[in-house]
Specification:
The chain is α/β, with parallel strands linked by helices. It contains 6 helices and 5 strands, in the order ββαβααββααα. It has a 5-stranded mixed sheet, with helices on both faces. The longest helix is centred in the last third of the chain and has 22 residues. The termini are far apart.
């Protein structure tokens, strides 16, 4: 069972992102506020759950939480400000969308920039420790997966319905054979070998 909160009697929002290591598409971030002492034995780091379970839990999270939000930063912005800053910006955007202002933010990972006047803690592997961060990881992952599956309809050769933009051999082979799309991150190492790619 994951921990329900870091501080008692504070409105805490868990924050996490999805898609940092992808070669294509936006980075997504989510934030979730649960009632104090909320429990759900099935909630865990999204990477430890099956795709089916993630989507089942998404409905439970949305129904049970006090508030939630999802935001994204596209690949063009990622190329301009780098993936770390883009991930933090996506989290800021998600928190800004909340109707309930949190009193404290629980951030997955070890890097964050303070959002307005809200104090925060960075928690390494927080999505496997705190229930609100785990819930945020599930929302970020499933909403991003939905986005990439939709993109796949126009770019089936990259198999984004399966790899979601991550650097699989299949995805990299498609880049070699087909080149890149407007959704690829040009600042990323798109191929394992240093081959010059025409970005025009």
């Amino acid at each position: 069972m994951l921990k329900s909160h870091l501080h008692k009697n504070k409105i805490e929002a868990g924050c996490d992102e999805a898609g940092r290591g992808c070669l294509a598409g936006p980075v997504f971030a989510a934030t979730v506020i649960f009632p104090q002492n909320y429990k759900n034995v099935f909630l865990n780091d999204s990477k430890k759950l099956s795709e089916k379970k993630r989507y089942e839990l998404r409905e439970v999270i949305i129904k049970d939480c006090i508030d939630w939000a999802v935001a994204s930063v596209d690949n063009f912005e990622i190329d301009k400000i780098n993936i770390l800053n883009a991930s933090i910006k996506a989290m800021h955007k998600a928190v800004a969308q909340l109707k309930t202002k949190p009193e404290y933010l629980l951030i997955d990972g070890n890097r964050f920039k303070a959002y307005e006047d809200i104090p925060h803690s960075c928690i390494i592997k927080g999505d496997g420790k705190y229930i609100s961060i785990a819930a945020a990881s599930i929302l970020a992952k499933t909403f991003r997966d939905d986005y990439m599956k939709n993109l796949h309809k126009n770019f089936p050769q990259y198999h984004w319905n399966k790899n979601k933009g991550y650097p699989t051999a299949e995805h990299r082979n498609a880049i070699i054979n087909r080149g890149i799309t407007e959704y690829h991150r040009k600042s990323f190492r798109l191929l394992q070998k240093q081959i010059k790619i025409n970005f025009e």
